[in-house]
Amino acid sequence: MAIEPRGEEWGFETRAVHGEEGNDPYRALTPPIYMTSTYTFPSMETVDRVTGGKEEGFVYSRAGNPTVRQFERTMARLEGGEEGVAFSSGMGAISAVLLSWAKKGRPFLFSRHLYSGTRHFIESMLIPLGATVRYVSFPEGAPSKGGLEEALREGAAGLFLETPSNPTLEIVDLSATAALCRTYGVPLAVDNTFASPALQNPLALGADLVIHSATKYLGGHGDLLGGVALGDRQTIGSLRTVEAPLLGATLSPMNAWLILRGIKTLALRMEAHSQRASLLARILSGHRAVVRVHYPGLAEHPGHGIALRQMRGTGGMLSIQFASFEAARRFMDRLRIIRIGVSLGDPASLVEHPASMSHRGWSREVRQSLGIEEGLVRMSVGLESPDDLARDVEEALAGL
Length: 400
Ligand SMILES: Cc1ncc(COP(=O)(O)O)c(C=O)c1O
Hints:
This protein is an alpha/beta fold.
């Protein structure tokens, strides 16, 4: 008899491997890819049942597709959410969530440390559209110290944050922040891209919404773009029926299938990414050319204790503060296995220099206010042999 995963009673790896299997009429182990833009109906009575919500069915793939639905349901199980809605990229998910909040006409609260595209969306879309935006800090990860409570007391459409954050790996205490948000009735959305559901589940810690760029660890092979938002039925209902189909950034069935395939090995990959990143963080933090390594697995990281409490591994991302712009760039040029590129979460290790690449569009002052110094290098530690990665880093550091 086929295994029928029933949510939480199976372990993470079992849920990731078996997803939503068992629903296929031909009992295919791997889900089919429904490459169709539209669906037909045998009768107007069926039209009424499907459009009236009495029978599950699909009308048009911008509003729903069976392969995409499998991905959404699998992700909801992995994050412990009731529902999920998929998007064509992480930014598709983020922009839909933020525009759904814009309808409330209240101020937006954001953590200061965000992916550059999210910040770009805030500055180039939300603010010009008339939104009031406030950035808050989480010194040492604590919500009680950076002005959050005062901002929550004044009322807000929602608080949006990342932990660990891109690119400086700030950690925020999710349980404490969620409890504070709940006190003031403000929804909390967490971009969980860096941790992935294998290492951290914000909904279980009290968040209302979880967002992923599926382009990264979920897909896991650097060959697609995708995004997803997970939460309770009511919150996801509006994203599914209004923002996703009307903004139109919905996921293709082919990419949903590839992400489902990637998810099967997510837990194994995250363990391997975490081990290799821990090794490189130790090597880097002992070198004289390195001012500081930002990695939540290092005991000296200010969020280390919180990370150990709320994560099941400290992940594959780290950033390195070199003394100068030149040292950072020389280090990158000398790497042989670890390639220069802006994405992350791939089997191939990648480095990027925020001041020259992801954050080039921001002034030096803005970058400095975000802790992005000229000598900062972000590294996505991949799945190559640990010894080769260690040697690559040691050789690039030699003589700096
Ligand atoms: C933390 C984080 N969130 C969201 C995104 C955006 O994802 P996408 O590139 O899939 O739109 C990224 C991309 O790098 C990211 O690092």
